[in-house]
Design a protein that fits this description.
533 residues; 5-stranded antiparallel beta sheet; globular
């Protein structure tokens, strides 16, 4: 593999642009101008035009009080593209889904982000393990099987630095796991080198075991870690060696299989909208904005792209693009596929998304959203999440036009007889839905018996996914109509349902506008979480 310093001539301004973005992964929540400048090796006056361009592109954003900067929605989309590329190109995601389905084990894909291993995707088991593991969850390096795989196999110097900080209790952000003695850790690292995996028994909760497997690229460099969690009976120590060998064999086969890349038509990228918070006349850095256009073009597909196609979408002559790509590769935002002329987004892209998840409070943003929607429409708006046995209301704004209803915080919503339930039913797996259906049938047998047949519900779910939202009418003395739309994370999985409820005739008369308003609102938060439709 060609060393990054031997790539040829780049553009200094583009390398500064990449360095600024990369520095954001290690600065914590909403760093200010002075902090970013120091981390990037710049004077504040030098940094300002770069920040203007980064905001204009959507790679960074300034908070409402102008007190600090955060990683922006375009950076989240770049990260989502990188994660999807790793998951599909190396066979990781199909394998993880198969393990979860066939063995009833929870599987998480964990990447290095900023200063610690961070969960990027969770594929739950059918059995409830009562683990609060979700995208954005962080692990200790020394105190977990996952972290120790990074420590044993990663060549990133930040991993060893994090381990030393944990030993010296210098960590600002705690992760899952208890720090062992140094001698104990050294023995654990030696075992990983010998076996190729890390296993822990009764690690975080009694009766819960974990297996961490490295995912390597063509050059045997660590890309990420597949973490498998199960009960003591579902993931017993005696079966771990065989499972690890099976996983290693399947990963090698997927990695060694000749790559077949789909062709994506060139010239399909829409111009990026300028951020409203950046005045048009504020001076930026032209080359940085061109580099941002190249990154946007690469995010059009999770598959590696030809240079000519990327340049076509970025409105750039290929000969001129070489210097930009050299610098973007040096900063880890772009990499060349080994043995191929194609380019793909690099590891820093994934870090930007995951670090954003560390600090982005999706629940608070969703709560603010229902308040805004209720204020604008006068309707009752509420927020729901998927609980252990179905959708549960977690926040509610009654609105000026509220009618009598028994919806309240903590209320479970029926799966087939509410807009919220139909929405979740359309977007979650049958494995997750099954226990909720059984509980609902036992608790409300007459309500359940009145539900449509499964084939009709499945057809309705397909329409809901196509339309982007679900509807439900309540007739009789209280006449209501509800619209519910999903907030997705970067994996395309539903995190929240946002539901608007109002008087039947009023909603029907204005439904087209209300639907557009709702879909635009949830799309903004989904984009903030890295979701790309």
């Amino acid at each position: 593999m060609k060393a990054e310093d031997d790539l040829g001539r780049g553009l200094k301004s583009v390398e500064i642009f990449g360095t600024i973005l990369g520095s954001m992964t290690g600065l914590g929540e909403r760093p200010g101008l002075v902090e970013i400048a120091a981390a990037s090796g710049l004077q504040p006056a030098q940094l300002r035009p770069y920040l203007t361009s980064l905001q204009r592109l959507g790679l960074l954003e300034l908070d409402a009080d102008a007190k600090g900067h955060a990683i922006g929605p375009l950076a989240a989309r770049l990260g989502q593209c990188r994660l999807e590329m790793i998951g599909q190109s190396y066979g990781v995601l199909p394998l993880a889904q198969r393990i979860a389905a066939e063995r009833d084990l929870l599987v998480a894909l964990v990447f290095w982000a900023g200063q610690m291993p961070t969960v990027a995707k969770v594929i739950p088991s059918r059995s409830s393990l009562n683990l609060n593991l979700r995208p954005g969850t962080v692990y200790n390096v020394t105190g977990t099987a996952t972290g120790r795989v990074f420590l044993a196999l990663s060549d990133d110097p930040r991993v060893a630095d994090r381990a030393e900080d944990e030993f010296e209790a210098r960590t600002d952000v705690p992760g899952i796991g208890d720090v062992p003695e140094r001698a104990t850790l050294e023995a654990m690292i030696s075992e990983i080198h010998e076996t190729g995996y890390s296993f822990v028994q009764d690690a975080y909760f009694p009766g819960i075991n974990g297996l961490a497997m490295p995912i390597l690229d063509e050059g045997e460099r660590l890309l990420c870690v597949m973490t498998i969690v199960g009960s003591r009976s579902g993931l017993p120590r005696r079966s771990v060696a065989d499972l690890a060998e099976e996983i290693s064999r399947d990963l090698r086969a997927a990695r060694d299989e000749p790559a077949v890349f789909a062709e994506l038509p060139a010239g399909i990228m829409e111009p990026a909208e300028e951020a409203a918070s950046v005045p048009e006349d504020r001076r930026g850095v032209g080359s940085a904005e061109i580099a941002g256009r190249l990154l946007s073009a690469m995010a059009l597909s999770p598959e590696p792209r030809k240079l000519k196609d990327v340049c076509s979408d970025a409105a750039l002559v290929p000969a001129k693009a070489h210097g930009y790509l050299v610098s973007l590769r040096r900063t880890g935002l772009v990499e060349k596929v080994p043995g191929s002329p194609r380019y793909r987004l690099g590891p820093v892209a994934a870090e930007l998304l995951l670090v954003r998840l560390h600090s982005y409070d999706a629940f608070e943003s969703a709560r603010k959203l229902i308040g805004e929607l209720s204020g604008e429409t006068g309707m009752m708006c509420f927020l729901s999440v998927w609980g252990t046995y179905g959708p549960v209301v977690v926040d509610i704004v009654r609105g000026r036009e509220a009618r009598h209803t028994d919806i309240h915080i903590g209320r479970s919503m029926p799966l087939a007889r509410s807009a919220t339930g139909l929405l979740f039913r359309a977007h979650i797996s049958a494995e997750l839905r099954g226990p909720a259906v059984l509980v609902e049938r036992a608790a409300f047998p007459r309500l359940h018996d009145a539900n449509p047949e499964d084939d009709l519900l499945d057809a309705q779910a397909k329409k809901i996914r196509a339309a982007g939202c679900a509807t439900w009418e309540q007739r009789g003395p209280i006449r209501l109509r509800s619209l519910a739309a999903p907030i997705f994370d970067h994996n395309g999985e539903i995190w929240f349902a946002v539901t608007m409820t109002g008087e039947l005739e009023r909603v029907l008369a204005d439904e087209t506008h209300l639907r557009q308003q709702l879909l635009a609102a949830v799309a903004r938060i989904s984009a903030d979480l890295g979701h790309a439709p």
